[in-house]
Amino acid sequence: MIRTVAAAATRHNVTHHELFGLRDADSARAEPAAQLGLTTSDYRPKPAYDVYRKLITES
Description:
Blueprint: H1 2-8, H2 47-58
InterPro entries: GH
């Protein structure tokens, strides 16, 4: 998704892309919506955290 947005940014006048799920709402809860962040609720990085960091450096 990040690469797609970046590739089309100029053509579609996209100037910002924000990720609102930096931290899980509550990593202890079983429902998926509580665990959508890049870090756990106590800010421990999840595997997607490093992937996102690498994508940022590409742009």
